[in-house]
Specification:
Porin; 23 strands; two-stranded antiparallel ribbon
């Protein structure tokens, strides 16, 4: 890790050597500092609609506190700073038989713990338009997405460099070594869904290129040691159709192949396997996934339709620590439009058609109110017993932010999802949450 950090620091200096070093600002480390407290009250209920196995229902309420501190940078050619996340959760309601560890609240001898907390600091350095970050990271990249679907967010640990030294081009690269789940305070290594062996390194890099004001192109690569090598190609195009209308087209292609231990029979025999269907039942990662969607927006309306294809070699994979026992590391996100409230629609061989309609009520004078509905239908998923399976999911979402009075800024949200699948239990999910952000600095 130390050699990588040194190499990354040298790369930071090299990239920016030819760029004029702007002062990070007259304010400096403390004068430019910002801090806020985000409060999130989160209720979660998931009913299993069939099957006799436990649990038949997961139901919990929790209160989350997230203090986010961001310093400025010290003056000089290279500016230094420190960011930090202070994360704390309090169980408001749970009970034996209704608590499932790793979903939202950590477990203590099979029961929901009463309180949990952790501190996640990040050292940062900036030279001109290039920034190095070391420590806690919350990436939102095509090859690695931190999950924020419960009361507290998932975080990763490692080093990342990003640079905007070139016009219209953002370069990003890094190395991740550990993760902390959204319902946990335990640090884990990295893995894939269905595996129990951990990896100590996830390398990634890529570019976001604003070709012009309408088109953005992306390329990223990632390597999870002993599991896979992944390439991503993406493009997002905005087409203006008058003053209040536009069409957004989003194309995504992933190519993922086994690497390291997962690419050898001996390595797979040692536990470096991926879960779910694999061709020949080998446990080897081999996947191509592509999707395309178009969204039409007009006067508050947004209608999106899309289609996604997953190849038959194995399920689509990105880092997922959920199968590591006793770590509370469940909950992972992927950069797929089909990554929804219940299902991921990322099984080997699966073809998914989807449509979503959303409306921003500000268009009719109700500022702060938004609603959406989405339906997904997946078919052709390969099964371990041979043949294929289908599944579908319907999602509803309503959000409102109070615009005035003593409760101004308070956000209210509700999510409902129903899923029927031939490969998992049918489910009915409800989430309700209340949020408020209080500035501290």
């Amino acid at each position: 890790m130390m050699r990588f950090a040194v190499a990354s620091t040298l790369a930071l200096s090299f990239v920016c050597a030819s760029v004029p070093a702007d002062e990070p600002g007259p304010g400096g480390f403390l004068a430019d500092a910002k801090a806020n407290l985000n409060l999130r009250t989160f209720g979660f209920r998931n009913d299993n609609l069939d099957g006799t196995g436990a649990p038949s229902r997961t139901e919990e309420w929790a209160q989350g506190f997230v203090v986010k501190f961001q310093s400025g940078f010290t003056p000089g050619g290279i500016g230094y700073g420190l960011d930090a996340l202070g994360l704390a959760g309090v169980t408001l309601d749970s009970g034996q038989g209704r608590h499932v560890g790793s979903s939202m609240i950590p477990s203590d001898d099979g029961r929901a713990t009463k309180t949990w907390a952790r501190l996640a600091p990040t050292f940062k350095a900036r030279l001109a338009s290039t920034e190095l970050r070391y420590g806690a990271l919350v990436p939102q990249l095509p090859v690695l997405m931190a999950n924020d679907g419960r009361v507290l967010p998932q975080t990763f640990e490692g080093l990342q460099i990003s640079s905007e030294a070139f016009d219209r081009l953002l370069l990003t690269g890094g190395r991740i070594t550990r993760a902390v789940g959204r319902g946990s305070t335990d640090r884990t290594g990295l893995s894939v869904a269905g595996a129990t062996r951990q990896s100590d390194a996830f390398y990634y890099g890529g570019a976001d290129w604003a070709v012009d004001d309408a088109l953005k192109a992306q390329y990223y690569f990632a390597r999870l040691d002993d599991y896979y090598l992944q390439h991503f190609f993406g493009a997002i195009h905005h087409l203006q159709l008058g003053e209040s209308s536009e069409m957004i087209t989003d194309a995504r292609i992933f190519s993922t192949r086994s690497s390291g231990a997962n690419s050898t029979a001996a390595g797979r025999a040692g536990g470096y396997v991926v879960g779910g269907y694999t061709e020949g039942d080998t446990g080897e990662i081999d996947n191509r996934t592509w999707s395309i969607s178009s969204e039409y927006r007009h006067a508050g309306h947004a209608l999106m339709i899309g289609y996604q294809v997953v190849s038959s070699g194995s399920n689509f994979v990105q880092p997922n620590q959920g199968s590591l026992e006793g770590k509370g590391a469940g909950g992972a996100s992927t950069y797929l439009l089909t990554d929804r409230f219940i299902q991921g629609f990322n099984r080997a061989g699966e073809r998914t058609a989807f449509a979503q309609y959303g409306f921003d009520f500000a268009a009719v004078g109700v500022v702060g109110l938004k609603a959406s509905v989405m339906y997904l239908k997946g078919t052709g998923a390969d099964t371990l017993g041979g043949g294929s399976a289908a599944e579908w999911e319907r999602d509803l979402g309503v959000d409102y932010v109070i615009q005035g009075g003593p409760l101004k800024g308070v956000g209210l949200g509700w999510r409902n999802a129903i899923s029927h699948s031939e490969l998992s239990r049918n489910q009915d999910l409800n989430r309700a949450f209340l949020t408020y952000t209080l500035p501290l600095l």
